[in-house]
């Protein structure tokens, strides 16, 4: 099987224009792509616009999914797959004009007005586009059917989305063309890895899941099988023997392709680093006011030992060193792609990548084993201290650039806003992309609502604490009276943790007195890091529309058994 | 005049044993000290104990001052100088045995019991020493008079201290010896620089003062004359033409002495950096529960442009570079000394010093002028992003070491603790020395209690925001209803501020609607930095016994004129 990277390159090179684009049908194609790479260097900064132009022309389908994917429609993700009311949407409606797919494909730009089809329906979504939080990304698949997208993002198949969608209905699709766009298209999620039964999914397609909180802090190192999974797209199947990582510098016009074997020739660098999803603990923030996003508990975080080549060593071989480049960002692209074959993408500031103490590695091992498929096999970039979203899995390409990644996830997602900003007023350009995460902690034992035995007037409490940016945890305070009185917990840190390279979390324990003769107690935890930053008390004032950065005190209400 | 550095060296070299030690009387002495330096390298790690042994023998006076200096006895500092009830303390008391200074000097160690004299009184303070929060530092001047110390630290002359002190009274001092210890001793504060009349002192000896809040944010750069002053000791008078900076590496047994001219040969490096006292905004924290420390308002912070030699360039010339040393800390000693001639001292982790992007400089200019005496003339080490206490003024010595500075200010001061820790339970070893400061902000206009004109339903609010560790301010939220609703302010940042080298503060402005028809409002401000850390809501849960790290939301109550 050829790699997804090659498929993506082929697609871009050939400006593939087939109507019912099916990934599997492409897998028999093969071609050298070296000569293409040279053009690609110049083309990369125009990547998005090139892709827009290309895709708008062949109509691979509309990208309404983008809106709903990045909002993640928390409520809908699991249930929607079996939504029984779907049949009523996209049904043939009397009295509307009839169009065929060729008609639809003529409406692929704003100038021509943007049309899409869904089942028996034709829709003019031009007026919706202006309101689209993700901007003109929605144009990517204009002029075709949305069905290939919705196969990938089952989340769309819920009444809320379909009700809204139906308002833009302008006609019926010719009977012969109905279903043409999904003919021969296999389930993109048909080849997902097997997962541990303990992982609790908040979304199945794409797969997102966290382990049970009670198992999370059994040891400083999180077992691979229990490490939370946050995928944005289907897991690509990558053949390590043909895997290639492309590294290029936009300005210097240099590029180099590395096989897995090439990467393993660099000194093997090992770091113990915690990776956390920006949305960890979102379910608590949601209680203040709903947010858009997967409803993560407190376990969208894990701590592992990662081994691989240091990115700064690899970049040095391209002549890219501190002070010898005008670039400002390092962009990463995954081999996981959306229906328009645009890869998952993110970037980090170049300071982090070039700093030998930044410990950014192109990791091929997780806890001493080849990185599991769900975590980025064969290569995941590990950016210690930085939000999970920049630790790009299935790494396919690195671009040294003056610009941030133009990906949706860098530009229009994973950013923090003031509580007053809502979807009607948000301007994603006004906030910086989340990189280093703030200090956080959580209580893992006991669990919310649990009945806990009181021994000698005390209960046992256990949890984790972590801070981004290599800041070390210097103290965890625990309270059993809702935050009136505090006691310092015993903190177990990762070996050799030293600011500003304390990348791994700490696990803490406390035996804490509970109020006498009471049958209930509210436990609270808050951590202090080596910059003496601490957590905010409540969620009200850090609430944000995406529900990220949910690092207020963790409060757990328990019942006391005496 | 010879430099203070030389005086200190002479004192240490000669194990000076004069009873009534007067700094000025030493200033005519002069000697080469090169041969001494070699011994000093080995001796440095035993610095404290050597000094204790030396000083205990000659009895320069007791060090009760240390306890009160590091607690800074907030309430007492200004008023105490004119305390009229002092006369009753240390008066001759009938029925007590009589001792002379020679008797007292035989009690300079714990084994012999520790005696001190004050005016006509002799005291056995042995049992007090065990309770002393500063540990055995109090032994430094055992076996002599406390008067030379109290001349320096007028704070002791208040009823609270003297009442406690009088309890340890054991005898009367022989009439001939009364006053001998302060004979010929001039006022150590007799040669302080002139200060701008706008600076409001919270302590005059040593001098500590902040500018009026309303002037603080007139510009991004704080004028030298209005920059807050935080001195721990008298300002030394240093002659730039004879100034010498000693740099040594304990392990490598290397040392080098630099004149000011030598330092100016290095490339001139300029950084704009904010310096803040760890106790800034302490007066707000005190409202929750009293703390020990100078009662700073919100203006113990300033932002200046500093120029000098990079510390990493200087260290490189001694062969000390990243990865080529086992040292972990860089210690700094000032030329300002206590009555036992121990210098002010502090240290920083070596990572910060050796990182070329850490921007640590040996600064000889502040805002384009030679550094003023109050700010460290001729050399102050500027450690951007790090608490003021480590930005050592009048820099006399740098030691590359495996150990932190053993100074009082590094070990037993400038540390954070949980709210539950009080002076009875504190163990200073349990917290790390404050280095990088957490995110903070303050409202500078309007002031607390001020009547403010409402225009179009709005009021103008202005302030500063800053975060340590080079974290950039990415947002400031302002509220006019006590924190229920928030509006993002307009933020003006220093040129070129980029995480993690955003060393300078930001000034922010907002025109914010106030509740209709109300005559009062509570303004609040909170900042978010580029690590997305934000401020805690209230002081209750960050209260600490020293009143440091007071970075809760700033709340200002105003009256509205309509």
From TrEMBL, chains A, B:
Gene Ontology cellular-component annotations: mitochondrial intermembrane space
Entry keyword annotation includes Phosphoprotein: no
Pathway assignment: Energy metabolism; sulfur metabolism; Sulfur metabolism
Compartments where located: Mitochondrion intermembrane space
Requisite cofactors: heme b; Mo-molybdopterin
Gene Ontology MF annotations: heme binding; molybdenum ion binding; molybdopterin cofactor binding; sulfite oxidase activity
Residue stretches making up the Cytochrome b5 heme-binding domain: 96-174
Predominant cellular place of this UniProt entry's protein: mitochondrion
Broadest EC class assigned to this enzyme: oxidoreductase
Top-level taxon of the source organism: Eukaryota
Matches recorded under InterPro entries: Cyt_B5-like_heme/steroid-bd (IPR001199), Cyt_B5-like_heme/steroid_sf (IPR036400), Cyt_B5_heme-BS (IPR018506), Ig_E-set (IPR014756), MoCF_OxRdtse_dimer (IPR005066), Mopterin_OxRdtase_euk (IPR008335), OxRdtase_Mopterin-bd_dom (IPR000572), OxRdtase_Mopterin-bd_sf (IPR036374)
Known EC number: 1.8.3.1
UniProt KW keywords: Heme, Iron, Metal-binding, Mitochondrion, Molybdenum, Oxidoreductase
Biological process annotations from GO: sulfur compound metabolic process
Protein name (record): Sulfite oxidase
């Amino acid at each position: 099987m050829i790699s997804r990277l090659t498929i993506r390159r082929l697609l871009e090179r050939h400006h593939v224009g087939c109507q019912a684009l099916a990934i599997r049908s492409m897998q028999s194609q093969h071609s050298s792509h070296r000569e293409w790479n040279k053009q690609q260097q110049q083309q990369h900064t125009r990547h998005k616009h090139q892709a827009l132009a290309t895709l708008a022309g062949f109509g691979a389908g509309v990208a309404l999914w983008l809106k709903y994917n990045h909002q993640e429609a928390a409520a809908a993700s699991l249930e929607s797959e079996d939504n029984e009311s779907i049949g009523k949407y996209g049904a043939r409606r009397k009295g509307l004009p009839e169009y065929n797919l060729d008609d639809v494909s003529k409406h692929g730009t704003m100038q021509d007005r943007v049309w899409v089809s869904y089942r028996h329906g034709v829709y003019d979504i031009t007026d919706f586009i202006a309101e689209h939080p993700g901007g003109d990304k929605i144009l990517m698949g204009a002029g075709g059917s949305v069905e290939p997208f919705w196969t990938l993002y089952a989340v769309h198949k819920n009444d809320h989305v379909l009700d809204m969608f139906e308002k833009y209905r302008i006609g019926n699709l010719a009977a012969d063309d109905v279903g043409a766009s999904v003919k021969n298209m296999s389930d993109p999620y048909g080849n997902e890895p097997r997962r541990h039964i303990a992982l609790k999914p908040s979304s199945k397609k794409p797969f997102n899941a966290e382990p049970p909180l009670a198992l999370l802090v059994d040891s400083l190192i999180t077992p691979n099988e229990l490490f939370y999974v946050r995928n944005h797209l289907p897991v690509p199947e990558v053949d390590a023997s043909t895997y290639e990582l492309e590294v290029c510098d936009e300005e210097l016009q240099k590029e180099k392709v590395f096989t897995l074997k090439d990467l393993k020739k660099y000194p093997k660098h090992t770091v113990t680093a915690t990776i956390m999803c920006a949305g960890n603990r979102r379910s608590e923030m949601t209680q203040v006011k709903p947010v858009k996003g997967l409803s993560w508990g407190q376990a969208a975080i894990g701590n592992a030992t990662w081994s691989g080549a240091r990115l700064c060593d690899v970049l040095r071989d391209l002549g890219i060193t501190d002070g010898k480049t005008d670039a400002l960002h390092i962009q990463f692209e995954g081999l996981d792609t959306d229906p328009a074959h645009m890869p998952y993408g993110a970037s980090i500031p170049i300071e982090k990548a070039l700093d030998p103490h930044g410990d950014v590695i192109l990791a091929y091992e997780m806890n001493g084993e080849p990185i599991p498929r769900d975590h980025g096999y064969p290569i995941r970039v590990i950016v210690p201290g930085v939000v999970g979203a920049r630790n790009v899995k299935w790494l396919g390409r690195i671009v040294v650039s003056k610009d941030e990644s133009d990906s949706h996830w860098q530009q229009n997602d994973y950013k923090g806003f003031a509580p007053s900003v809502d979807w009607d007023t948000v301007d994603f350009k006004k906030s910086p992309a989340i990189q280093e995460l703030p200090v956080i902690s959580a209580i893992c034992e006991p669990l919310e609502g649990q009945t806990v035995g009181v021994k000698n007037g005390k209960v046992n409490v256990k949890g984790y604490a972590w801070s981004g940016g290599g800041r070390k945890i210097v103290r965890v305070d625990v309270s059993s009276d809702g935050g009136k009185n505090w006691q310092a917990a015993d903190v177990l840190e990762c070996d050799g943790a030293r600011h500003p390279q304390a990348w791994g979390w700490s696990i803490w324990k406390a035996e804490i007195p509970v109020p006498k003769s009471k049958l209930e107690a509210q436990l609270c935890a808050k951590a202090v890091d080596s910059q003496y930053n601490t957590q905010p008390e409540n969620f009200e004032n850090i609430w944000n529309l995406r529900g990220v950065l949910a690092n207020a005190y963790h409060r757990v209400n328990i019942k006391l058994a005496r």
